[in-house]
Amino acid sequence: MYRCIDVKRHLGEIKKKMKISIGINKGINKNKLFLVLIIFFTIIINLSVVHSAPTDTTDTTNTTNVTDTTDGKNQDRAKVMTNILEIYKKGNYATAVKELDDILGNDQSKAQKTHSDKQEKEFFATAFYLRGLCYSKSQDFDKAIVDFKSALKLGNIAKDIHYELGQAYYAAQEMEKARNQFKYSAKANYMMTSSLYYLGYISQTLEQYSLALKYYQRINENSEKDIYQAANFQIAEIMLLQAETATDPVESVKEDIIPQFEMAKKIDSKSVLAIEINRRINEIKDKYDLHENKMVNGRTLSPKGYTVSLKESTMYDSNVISEAEQTTQKASFKDTFYLKSDFTAKKRFIFAKRYVTSPTLRLTNNYNATHRGSGDIKKNDAYTINPFIDWQTEHKFGKKMATLTFDFDYNYTAKDVNKESILRFYSRTYSYGVAEKIAFFDIGDTTLKLKRKDYIANTYDTKSNTTSVSLTQNFAFQNKSLLLFLSNADFTTTPRNIDNSQNVYNLRGDYIIPDFYTNYQLSFGLSFTLTDTMKQREARGYEQTINPSTSIARTFAKFFEITFKYDYTKNISKSKVAYQYNKHVVGFDFSINL
């Protein structure tokens, strides 16, 4: 049996099939109950008038007990029908049908019979109408059609009867008859939006596309949002069908049809239907090769071509590290609260679906709010200016997607070098890198990178050069969680003070759960670092650093995010006094991401 469903349900089932089969069955609503009750109150009022007027003492009896017009019979009918209505309202449709069968029987003779009494006629018309609703609710549409037609023959005045009969015809796949009934309901201004949608969709099913467009276009933005969205979706589908008959439909699809789909999606971007519309847009772009962000090697970039973010952080550091940019690492053994501001702007440019460049600018400012009297704390007040640019070439490595990247990074840092609350030049770095990212595994990308960093400081003997090699492997799982592994080796030489040269080896893993809870992201990280102090090996040995961390972030109002994070560091050194330390960093971030 073809199922009659309502528009809301239809929009949910759209994920199962492309063509929409919509019926609307809201059941008996307040208007229906009000209408039916009016009919019975009319019967009772008329009975009261008859009861109070002079009556003929002649006993008038009809051979059919259902059409008995005596006062007692009419009162009994009103009571019985009121009881059936209560049963219907509770959803006990089978019981209601059984009660109505006792009144109407299983044939339609009572619909064909000419009833001389107006109340009697209304009574049977209402009984057929109500049983038709019960059959419709029970998905027995053939019987519902028969009873609705009988109710109409007896002059049923329910405003929704054509709409209900239209749904039953629709569910029974009698499309022409269904369309005629929805014309009546639209003319009566009953469920106008849904009736127009039915008229449009039935016409679309019958391949009468011009007529379908006429009905869909009568549904305006002041109508119910979900039906308005569905109508615009169907308009886009019809436009696509018409365009595909042309010799070269690509231009029409690009300029007219995809914008129509996009407009439909924007009506309610969070609806179930919006997900289906987005899927259709991608299907069409795949078919006609219209993906602006799909590269020649098959890699699809994010549709967002720019990033602007501002982050304000409040942090507590239990053990501030001084001279962090240098190759040595010294603990101050002092704690502080500090404030950090971070602004980042990035813009992406794509050329020939193969070349991508992304200029980026990052500005940061760091201010230590406590222990301002300590030089080791105060000298860490700083700001940085960090322009960055990369060039990517999308290509294939064998049959695998691959990306070759060249990047250049400049970092200028100013600090309170002389502990006098004036930020002066402290250091600058120039970094150059080349990386190859290959999708060796379907589950994630593998990236090999070579990097060179030149560090120039305000003091003569701290200039250094660092060559780095890193290997990164990502694993993306079906639940949207992400696992990242990084192995990195830094080889640092300080030509003007060879004692500070060192090699650093790092292993790190991060597990990110973006949908940990609604709008929440949870992440865990663990890092292990081994430092070969080379010339200082006798005093410091091989230093080991263990660094677990965690964070939980929540997004809200689309552009805003708050993050709580915790980071622990334990550095183990042979030189326990100068270089061995523990530290805890607890922080809270508030960011705006556009």
Explain this structure:
Helix content is 35%, strand content 34%. It has 16 helices and 18 strands. The strands form 2 sheets. Strands 1-4-7-8-9-10-11-12-13-14-15-16-17-18 form a 14-stranded antiparallel barrel. A two-stranded antiparallel ribbon has the order 2-3. Helix 2 (30-52) runs antiparallel to helix 3 and helix 8 runs antiparallel to helix 9. It is elongated and about 115 Å long. The model is unreliable at 1-70 and 323-328 (pLDDT under 50).
Please give the share of residues in helix. Answer: 25-40%
- Poorly predicted runs are 1-70, 323-328
Count of strand segments? 18
Tally of contiguous helical segments: 16
How much beta, percentage-wise?
25-35%
Cα gyration radius (Å): 38 Å
Mean pLDDT: 84
Q: Tell me the span between the first and last alpha carbons.
A: 50 Å
Topology:
Layout: H1 7-13, H2 30-52, H3 71-89, H4 93-104, H5 109-112, H6 118-137, H7 141-153, H8 161-171, H9 175-187, H10 192-205, H11 209-217, H12 225-243, H13 250-267, H14 272-288, E1 306-317, E2 321-322, E3 330-331, E4 336-347, E5 349-351, E6 355-357, E7 360-368, H15 375-378, E8 382-397, E9 400-415, E10 424-441, E11 444-457, E12 464-476, E13 482-493, E14 502-517, E15 520-532, H16 537-540, E16 542-556, E17 560-572, E18 581-593
Antiparallel strand pairs: 1-4, 1-18, 2-3, 4-7, 5-6, 6-8, 7-8, 8-9, 9-10, 10-11, 11-12, 12-13, 13-14, 14-15, 15-16, 16-17, 17-18
Helix pairs in contact: 2-3, 2-6, 3-4, 3-6, 4-6, 6-7, 7-8, 8-9, 9-10, 10-11, 10-12, 11-12, 12-13, 13-14
